[in-house]
Design goal:
The chain is mainly β. The chain folds into 2 domains: about 30-200, no CATH class; about 205-285, Immunoglobulin-like (Sandwich). About 5% of the residues lie in helices and about 55% in strands. The chain is built from 1 helix and 23 strands. It has one helix at about 10-20, and strands at about 25, 30-40, 50, 60-75, 75-90, 90-100, 100-105, 105-110, 115, 120, 125-135, 140-145, 155-160, 165-175, 180-190, 195-200, 215-220, 220-225, 235-240, 245-250, 255-260, 265-275, 275-285. Strands 1, 2, 6, 7, 8, 10, 13, 14 and 15 form a 9-stranded antiparallel β-sheet that branches. A hairpin with a 5-residue loop joins strand 14 (about 165-175) and strand 15. The longest helix has 8 residues, at about 10-20. The two termini are about 35 Å apart.
Length: about 280
């Protein structure tokens, strides 16, 4: 079981946990594992496996395969060379769309929902991206395939079974434009059986304060609105790479910060108050 330790009014303890290798957060019914440092997979490295709920069963495997050989292009004998980024579905299923018997993986946007309404593949291996150069003798032609090819910090929806029950989750990954590398950034799933999950974990915060924190921006100002019972609580704002940008204590219901120095990305607002821990993720455009 993965969980976030009690704050005990020691915010630095939570920040330390946040930065641990494979740091793990458990809030609401969603479990999020931040793969830190990010896992880089190439043809010369070992494959990378994910055990979604840490029960000893590997659901997914990531690997990169160098490709070369002979083929026919329009009836013309040809050779090809390139690479393929591959996900192995060992005991889990990726989300996608089946069109004319061709199953294509779906590239989710952060905040979208993975649920029983999605379609999931039944094969054991899928291409995240393929990049080949085909030499047909009369010219060299590129062959590009895959909904994750050349995409950074993209999200793959998944489902898997644990103790005979289905859970829905997601994996955050990047695939190079040459399809010669994969980076796994994070992954998460809903502990509740058959319950949908928000891709990327947006909105997953402790249930006891789920309606007590609002974050929005206006030009160079970041606004944090809290319930009055959180006044006096300590907070820190952490970037996606674990850098602390702000820290302080809430002194009012509406709190303003200058965010002109914050790069674009998804940030974590971590709060320690007498009412317990809270974590809200927000996006700076």
């Amino acid at each position: 079981m993965k969980y976030i330790a009690p704050f005990v009014n020691k915010l630095n303890l939570i920040i330390a946990l946040f930065l641990l290798t494979l740091s793990t957060f458990g809030y609401a019914q969603e479990i999020i594992v931040d793969v830190n440092p990010d896992q880089l997979i190439t043809a010369s490295t070992s494959s990378y496996t994910i055990d979604m709920d840490n029960n000893g069963t590997i659901e997914f495997l990531f690997r990169v395969q160098e490709m070369s050989g002979d083929t026919l292009l329009g009836g013309q004998p040809s050779t090809y060379v390139g690479a393929s980024a591959i996900i192995g579905a060992l005991n889990g299923q990726p989300a996608g769309v089946n069109d004319n018997s061709i199953f294509t993986l779906t590239n989710f946007t952060e905040g979208e929902i993975v649920s029983v309404a999605n379609e999931f593949g039944v094969d054991t291996s899928y291409s995240l991206g393929i990049n080949l150069l085909i030499d047909a003798g009369i010219g060299i032609f590129p062959y590009l395939y895959g909904s994750f090819l050349g995409d950074n910090n993209a999200f793959l929806g998944v489902s898997f079974e644990s103790d005979g029950n289905t859970h829905y989750g997601w994996i955050e990954l990047s695939v190079s434009s040459g399809s010669d590398s994969i980076i796994v950034h994070s992954y998460g799933y809903n502990q509740s059986v058959e319950e949908s999950v928000d891709v990327g974990g947006l909105g997953a915060i402790p249930t006891q304060v789920s309606n007590e924190i609002n974050v929005w921006s206006n030009f160079e100002t970041l606004f944090i609105e809290i319930n009055s019972n959180l006044i006096g609580g300590l907070f820190k704002i952490i970037s996606p790479d674990g850098k602390e940008y702000y820290s302080g204590k809430f002194s009012s219901i509406i709190n303003e910060l200058n965010h002109k120095d914050l790069p674009k990305g998804v940030y974590s607002l971590i709060i320690d108050s007498d009412n317990g821990p809270a974590l809200r993720r927000f996006y700076i455009p």
